[in-house]
């Protein structure tokens, strides 16, 4: 990250009293040697931070200071700043850590891990396109007076999801549009577009897209996993690590700085819990998380997280934890309106610690997520680590996999299902001599979107929500096979026999007696018709 750096505020000596600045600087350089470490004092005073920024000429990846700096640090997000990547500068409330009741060793470990998590996350964040930027106006949180009234309404950039048109399937998919709670995604000339004025930035579309065609800088699966990976790293001696994932729209900034909680709780803030996928949760456990808490305000969440969708995600992960002999209560959804949020988190932490570490904590290779961006792949990886070989099955509405079957008597081999499958779970293959047409189903690629069923013109497809562990290792199974018909004129195979037979039946049913032309390929039909 050339030209980037970390800014640390001394907070009038509070930092040095609990942790050595030199030690912290060495840690940051070990994390990323390209980062420059800059120290200052009283950075919560806007002019001090501005002077420091002007003097060093770096892009701040992380600013470690007190909470007051959050609003003061917004100046590089103003709309007249050309480099929009600075929207991602992370402000860590280090002063809150320093003023906690934790021991000096625990404070040192926590600050290091928090810094490392944001540095690691920033290293995977690419450029932010203009499509990801929404211009909005926010009221200043300082007291509004007659003198500052004209400048109280501040223009700011807000980062929102954007559709990568080159990767998007357009109208043939529309899974993101179907799930968007704000109705902000619509089709225009077979291309899907996000209406910036309507988008709330919840991120539900990111999870729904099977092609990775929606970018959301700061909240991609890779970036969130990098953040979690750093929090779980062995570069600190804290024995237990529990991840608390907060819905930002349910909390003020002050709320999400957990106070009086055990040192093993680390918070990750997301736009809404809609962006939390089974893949993200499983990767966290795979990398050594001892427990995961999902926290939001069920009734008052601005970015509405569908209750059933969240429940399905948790239930599915819990079923897998049961499979691996791990207490399913290590993952829990906590409602913000509960009487004592911090008390519930302490109780959850005590329960997790009393249960000990999971088997993944010590499993070989558990501290990595490289290549684990596919749900089936991470499940197979975790099975392998614990040497689970039983090939049973999970079923139910909360399972994000399906098993597809076809009524061969009705299927015409039209290939519509394969053409509309967004993940390639259904594909076609031609093989043999004479050649035969096959539909191949790959269970590990299925995401239970039902597009194949909805698009089938013959209504001959059936699906059942289930995860068959035995099929996850298969290269694919044939669910329909039919011989090809050869053209009477050029002798080239042009269609499956079932399709030609179905076409003949429909012509006969409609009163057409001469269906001979169906036995010619499309090219020869044109030639024959021209001769006539």
Enumerate the strands of the largest sheet in spatial order, edge to edge or round the barrel.
2-1-3-4
E-strand count: 21
Low-confidence stretches: 75-86
Helix content: 25-40%
Query: Number of domains in the coordinates?
Result: 5
Through-space gap between termini: 71 Å
Integer-rounded radius of gyration: 28 Å
Beta-strand content estimate:
15-25%
Largest sheet geometry:
4 strands, parallel
General form: elongated
Average of per-residue pLDDT values: 85
Instruction: Specify the structural class.
Output: alpha/beta
Give the number of helices. 17
What does the model show?
- This protein is an alpha/beta fold and 532 residues long.
- It has five domains: 1-127, 3-Layer(aba) Sandwich (Rossmann fold); 130-215, Alpha-Beta Plaits (2-Layer Sandwich), CATH 3.30.70.20; 230-389, no CATH class; 394-483, 2-Layer Sandwich (Alpha-Beta Plaits); 486-531, no CATH class.
- It has 17 helices and 21 strands.
- The strands form seven sheets. A four-stranded parallel sheet has the order 2-1-3-4, with helices on both faces. It has a four-stranded parallel sheet with strand order 12-11-13-14, with helices on both faces.
- Strand 17 (426-431) and strand 18 form a beta hairpin.
- The protein is elongated and about 95 Å long.
- The chain starts with a strand and ends with a helix.
């Amino acid at each position: 990250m050339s030209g980037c750096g970390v800014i640390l505020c001394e907070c009038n000596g509070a930092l040095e009293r609990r942790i050595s600045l030199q030690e912290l600087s060495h840690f940051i350089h070990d994390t990323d040697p390209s980062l420059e470490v800059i120290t200052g004092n009283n950075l919560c005073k806007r002019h001090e931070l501005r002077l420091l920024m002007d003097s060093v000429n770096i892009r701040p990846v992380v600013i470690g200071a007190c909470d007051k700096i959050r609003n003061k640090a917004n100046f590089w997000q103003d709309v007249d700043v050309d480099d929009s990547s600075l929207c991602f500068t992370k402000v860590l409330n280090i002063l809150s850590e320093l003023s906690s009741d934790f021991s000096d060793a625990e404070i040192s470990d926590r600050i290091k891990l928090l810094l490392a998590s944001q540095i690691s996350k920033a290293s995977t964040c690419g450029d932010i396109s203009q499509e990801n930027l929404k211009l909005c106006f926010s009221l200043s949180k300082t007291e509004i007076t007659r003198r500052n009234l004209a400048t109280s309404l501040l223009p700011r950039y807000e980062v929102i999801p954007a559709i990568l048109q080159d990767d998007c399937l357009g109208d043939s998919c529309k899974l993101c549009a179907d799930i968007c709670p704000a109705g902000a995604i619509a089709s225009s000339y077979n291309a899907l577009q996000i209406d910036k004025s309507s988008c709330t930035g919840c991120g539900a579309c990111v999870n729904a897209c099977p092609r990775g065609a929606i970018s959301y800088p700061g909240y991609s699966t890779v970036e969130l996993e990098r953040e979690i990976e750093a929090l779980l790293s062995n570069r600190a001696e804290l024995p237990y690590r529990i991840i608390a994932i907060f819905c930002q729209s349910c909390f003020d900034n002050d709320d999400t700085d957990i106070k009086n909680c055990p040192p093993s709780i680390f918070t990750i803030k997301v736009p809404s819990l809609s962006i939390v996928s089974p893949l993200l949760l499983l990767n966290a456990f795979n990398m050594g998380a001892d427990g995961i808490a999902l926290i939001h305000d069920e009734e008052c969440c601005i970015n509405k997280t569908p209750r059933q969708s969240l429940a399905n995600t948790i239930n599915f992960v819990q079923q897998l934890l049961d499979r691996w002999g791990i207490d399913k209560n290590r993952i829990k959804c906590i409602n913000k309106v509960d009487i004592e949020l911090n008390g519930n988190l302490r109780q959850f932490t005590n329960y997790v610690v009393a249960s000990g570490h999971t088997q993944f904590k010590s499993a070989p290779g558990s501290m990595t997520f490289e290549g684990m961006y596919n749900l089936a792949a991470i499940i197979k990886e975790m099975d392998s680590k614990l040497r689970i070989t039983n090939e049973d099955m999970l079923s139910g509405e909360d399972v994000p996999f399906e098993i597809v079957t076809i009524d061969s008597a009705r299927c015409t081999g039209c290939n519509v299902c394969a053409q509309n499958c967004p993940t390639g779970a259904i594909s076609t293959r031609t093989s043999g001599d004479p050649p035969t047409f096959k539909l191949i189903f790959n269970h590990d690629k299925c995401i239970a979107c039902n597009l194949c069923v909805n698009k089938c013109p013959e209504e001959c497809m059936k699906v059942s929500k289930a995860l068959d562990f035995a099929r996850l290792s298969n290269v694919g199974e044939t669910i329909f096979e039919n011989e090809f018909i050869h053209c009477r004129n050029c002798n080239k195979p042009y269609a499956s026999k079932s399709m030609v037979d179905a076409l003949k039946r429909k012509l006969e049913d409609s009163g057409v007696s001469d269906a001979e032309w169906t036995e010619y390929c499309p090219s020869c039909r044109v030639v024959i018709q021209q001769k006539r």
